[in-house]
Structure formats: structure tokens, C-alpha cells
Amino acid sequence: MFRPDAHGIAHSQLTAFGQWCEARTGQQLRDHAAMDRFSVEDFHSFWRLFLEWSDVPRDGAAEPVCVGDACETARFFPDIRLNYAECLLAGSPGQPVLTACHADGSRDRFTRGALRGAVGRLARSLQRLGVRPGDHVVAIARNNAAAVIACLATAAIGATFASCAPDMGVPAILARFAPLEPVVLFGCLRAERWDAGIPVAERVLETAAGLPSLAAIIALVVRDVALPAAVARVKASLPRYSGYAETLAAMSRAEALAAQGVPEAEAVVTLGEGWVAEEALAIALLCALAAPDYETGVRLAVNHDGDSDSTAAIAGNLLGAMHGIDAIPRRWLIGIELKRVITEMADDLATFVDWPIGEFVPDSDEADYWKRRYPGR
Questions:
Q1: CATH of domain 96-219
Q2: How far apart (Å, rounded) are the C-alpha atoms in residues 222 and 209?
Q3: Degrees to nearest 5, angle at CA 311 with 307 and 313
Q4: CA 273, 278, 283: angle at the middle one, nearest 5?
């Protein structure tokens, strides 16, 4: 059985909340048993104080705290509205919030900013598919980051989310999902070596055939990878290409500098001035790896001698992918020329791989829409 040590107890959120309650009630709430009694005997005060202490994003009045005293029918904070995803994703964009551990020992790590960006992109895609508050979204999902992102994106727009494991049989899946009449089905399609029985992709398709309410099926794919892991993968792949040595050496120097913390501007130029590709990449990589947030990284990338506009642009792309669009300081966004057009094009290009266009793709209304929106020669 896990037993926290004295240091862990003293620095826990429960201890901080207990001390906060003591200061406001005058009661002695020194241990878990005392907090438990307080939460039962004076639950109105307990939950009112918890709402104030947690300070979650919300709308509406905190009173009444509870309507009714019967456990089965009581309603807490009936006049407050909040969004689960908004509450969970509020806070410092650079803080690590999610680690997905895989059977091969690899890990996908997300900062709050990166997770917020992934959730926001998927939520906008769901809205474009017509998902609205109150709709039901379901998933045949593995225990990974993709499932978390799908759940939070669904919650972000006020829809409900239900999931099941991919090793369940189709009749059991339909027994769970069919009564919900879902409008979207997320499905993990990639086989894993430990899968048994019917291939998971076939189960997803058979399930979809039994859900006539579906408007779309979305494949669950984890594309977000922490930057250090992505750098390691790129470095491992470089020897396949001729002339890779200079790029590999530049990336390794950037990693070594980043390990020392946020560098001074003078240290940045030890990697070069950015006039050649591997120097620009190394400088941007250093700034993205070492900086604690978007603004620090971009400022570091732009304030050096040489081709600083290129290094800052590369660093901004890396930092944006890491921390998400919300990490960009709002004061930087004010007055950007053609901001609306740039934003619309970025949203469009994020879905480019799904456009039904190409030499051998049949004509359709959707294909005509994209061809008119971005006419080619």
C-alpha cells in the first residue's frame, strides 16, 4: 500500500486546501480525518470553499451550493456552468501534463500548451463535422494520448464521450454504443502485436455498420511527439541520406547547449549565424529545447546576429507545435496584417490530407469547393 512521506503530505494540494479552510473557518483541520468530518458535517461550506480555492473557470452564481439533502437527488451548484476541458487545460502552457507510456518503453509527453493545441484542433474539426452540444461521440480506443485528446475535444464543445477497449467483441461494443445514437465514431485502426482475434480495423468497420446515426468515422492516430523524442528519431534517420554529417553534428551541438539551460544570446551564435540550413536549424532547435515558453524561445531565436528572421520562424514553428497557439502572447497578435486570412488558411491546410482532390479522385461537391477556394493553374 502506498503511504506518502511527511514531505509529500506537507506539499500536497489536500494539505494546502486544508490550511486554506482553517484560515477561513477557524477550525482545526490538521489531518485527513478532520477534513473528512468537515466535508460531511458542513458540506455546504466545504464545497463553497473548494470552489473558491480551486478557482476553476466558470460562469454563474456560487449560491446555492446545494439544492436538496437527499444523496440520490441533491444538485450541487445548480446555477454554475463550466467546461471540463477548459478547466483541465487552463494554466501554464509549458507545464508537463500528460505522459503516455507504451509497451516498447517509449513515451509521448505533452505540455499543457501542446495538449491544448491538439484538443483545440480536433474540437474545431468536430464542429466542422456538425457535432453540437448534447451530441454523443464514441471511441474504440487504446489507452493512449489519442484517446485523451478525443475525449477532451468532445467535452470542449459540450458533447458527451463514451469509449470501449478494442479487444471487446462487436456485439458488446454495439450494446454499449447503439443506445447513444452517436454522430461520430473514433477508432484505432493500427494493429498491435498483442492483438488477438478479429483485426481491430475490421471491428471498427463492423461496429460502424451497426450505428446508422454516424456522420463520420475518425481514425485515432497519435502524431504529437515530445520534441526531444522527435529529435532523436530524426537523428536516427539522417544516415539514410548522403551529406548528413553536418546536419547531425549541428543538431547534436544544439542539444548539448540546451542541456545547460536557457543560453545567453552570445551562446546562440556559437552555432553559427543561420545563413546556411544546418545552422538555422540548430539555432532554432536550441531555442525550442531550452526555452520554458513560447515567448522566451522566439525572443532568443530572433535576437542574434545573422539570419535571425529565418531562425525565429523555424523556432516559432517548433514552439507552436509544442505549446499550442494559445501560448503565443496576445499582444503579438494585435495588428497582424491579414490575420483572419492567415488563420483560415492554416485551419484549411491542417485538413489538407483529407481533401478529396487528385488526378484519379472522382468529382464531388466537396472537391469543387476546395478547387474554387484554392484555384490552381
A1: 3.40.50.980
A2: 25
A3: 115
A4: 50
Nearest to 96 by CA among 53, 51, 56, 145: 145
In the chain, domain spans: 6-82, 96-219, 227-331, 335-373
Q: 296: burial class by Cβ within 10 Å (0-12, 13-18, 19+)?
A: middle
Of the candidates 245, 223, 230, 242, the residue with the CA atom closest to the CA atom of residue 149: 223
pLDDT, tens digit, 9 for 90 and up, residues 3-54? 888 888 888 888 999 999 999 999 988 888 999 999 999 999 999 999 999 9
CA 147 – CA 224 distance, rounded (Å): 13
161 forms bridges with which residues in the sheet?
Answer: 137
Q: How many CB atoms neighbour CB 171 within 10 A?
A: 10
- Integer Cα distance of 292 and 284 in angstroms: 14
Residue 222's closest CA among 197, 196, 189, 173? 189
Q: What is the pTM of this model?
A: 0.58
